[in-house]
Amino acid sequence: MISLTDRAYTKVKRLLQAKDYAGIRLGVKTTGCSGLAYVLEYVPEYTPSDSDINYAQQDFVVLVDKKNEVYLNGVTVDYVRQGLNEGFEFLNPNERDRCGCGESFRV
Question: Global pTM?
Answer without folding.
Answer: 0.85
